[in-house]
Structure formats: C-alpha cells, structure tokens
Amino acid sequence: MSPELLEEGTRARLEHEQREAQKDSSGGSASFGRVVRALEPDFAHGVALYLDDVTVSFDGFKALNALSLMIRVGELRAIIGPNGAGKTTMMDVITGKTRPDAGSVSFGQNIDLLRLRENQIAEAGIGRKFQKPTVFEQLSVFENLELALKGERGVRAALWHALRGEQRDRIDEVMTQTHLADQASRQAGLLSHGQKQWLEIGMLLMQDPKLLLLDEPVAGMTDEETERTAELFLSLEGKHSLVVVEHDMKFVDQITEGRKTVTVLHEGSVLAEGLLSAVQADERVVEVYLGR
Ligand SMILES: Nc1ncnc2c1ncn2[C@@H]1O[C@H](COP(=O)(O)OP(=O)(O)OP(=O)(O)O)[C@@H](O)[C@H]1O
Ligand SMILES: [Mg+2]
Fold it and tell me: Structural domains in the chain?
C-alpha cells in the first residue's frame, strides 16, 4: 500500500471511529476495565510498534537520526544507551509529545501515530510511565486505581457510582500483581518510592494498554524492589508489549533472561541489537559507554 493510501485510510477510519465513539458515549456503559477505544490497533501481522527512519532535530541537533525500530506484539524489549542517546525523545515521539521532522511511526498496522494527539494515542492503547511517579498522594492506593479505571473524564462518576464487582476484582488483581495488595487503604503519599512506581504502573494497567513504555522504571529503587519490578514486567510480557528503557544492567539482564533482544541507542539511532551478552561484548558499544 502506498503511504498516501495508508494515510487516507487512517484518516477515514479515524473519522468514522470518532463518529461511532460519540454515538456510544451517549448511551450504554463502557465495557468493564478499559476505556472506550475509538481507535483499535490491528495486530494481525504481529507488529505492535514500528518506527521507520524517524528524525527529530532540536535547533539543528539530531536527537533522533533516522531511527528505525520494530516491536512485536507481546514482546518485552529493553533499550539501553548512554545519556543523551535519544531514548526519552523516542518515547516522546511515540506518545505524540514531540513531532518528528521526518519518518513514520505506526501502532499495529493501521494506526499512524503521527496523525494523532497525545490523548488519542493514550486511548488507542499506549501507556507511558515517566521516571517520576505521579500518583494522587492524598488518595489511597485503592482510590488511585479506581480513578485510573474510570479515566479522567469519569472522576465524578467514580465518586458517585459504586463499583461493579468485576471492577473491584480487577483492582484487586492489579494490586496483587503490583505487590500492593496489603496497602489498599494506605494513602499513596505514604508509600515508598518503589511502591509509588508500582502504583503508577498499576494505574496504567487499569487502562489495559496494549503497549507500555517505561522510562527508567527502577531508578531509585532498592535491590529488592528492582527484582520485584523485573518479576512484574515478566508477568506482563505476552499480555502487553513493553518497551523498557533502563541504565541498570542487572535489571536488563533479569528482564531479558539471556534470550531477548536488547537495542542499543547512540546518537539517535540503533548502534547494536542482540542479546545483552553480545551487545555488551560489542566494541562499538563498549566505546560509546566508556566515551561518555
Ligand atoms: N526539548 C529539547 N530541546 C533541545 N534539546 C533536547 C530536547 N529534548 C532532548 N534534547 C536533547 O536531545 C538529546 C537526546 O535526549 P534524550 O533525553 O532523548 O536522551 P536519553 O537517551 O533519554 O538520555 P538519558 O539516558 O540521560 O535519559 C540530548 O542531547 C538532549 O539534550
Ligand atoms: Mg532519558
């Protein structure tokens, strides 16, 4: 299919789906545990995310330089690279925060992310975890997850309507997954740094994202918290696609289990890709890490 046709198709589909979503929101209730999705990615070909030849310039400096990357459905991909390599910029592009100068970014085989706004990208099923946790400190763990379930527009609804049993079950499930089951009524502001990170991941999970982007998720965590986070990510693999940026190589080793691909970014493009042991032995990789 030509790029023009693809764009035309995406636009037509988007407009159609927006009309459908508007119809939906006036009537019946949202399906349990997820936001109403106006944009449904098509994963039939097994590709979750595809960046092709993406370039981002800041005053002539190329933060991303013809970056191409493909993430399969259900894959857990670790991305490493020295400071300034463009890792966060890459996430900014995927989530619509930064617009590239050139290249294409698609979600599934049908959604052109460069045509969508940030909120539409989130609705399409891409969740992002920033380094600093942003939970509602005054609310309990349970209430934070409850709000995440209802979505921002549903805050008032969340306060006034009792949860259905299945929604409660979903919150319990996520609390168990994120090691917060015994903290349900605790005020989020009183949690440890690691627990806040888990709560924020839990809040993302309440939206049932297809793709999760996690930028330095274990920074500032204790060794034990880091290990539990690795277990959490491994339990999410397969059900979601995960892109994890991390500097902590022990953690990268844990989540890639000696058999998954690690991508090394440097100066805005892929420098190396392969098993962690292989990229760590790659002279070019050693050089960029030593040279920083
Ligand atoms: N908004 C911006 N304006 C100008 N330069 C920027 C902007 N955002 C990022 N950069 C530059 O782009 C380059 C890539 O930055 P980015 O934050 O993506 O790197 P990173 O790989 O995430 O690094 P780190 O490991 O330190 O988080 C850096 O040189 C950075 O200074
Ligand atoms: Mg960064």
Answer: 3-17+43-290 (3.40.50.300)
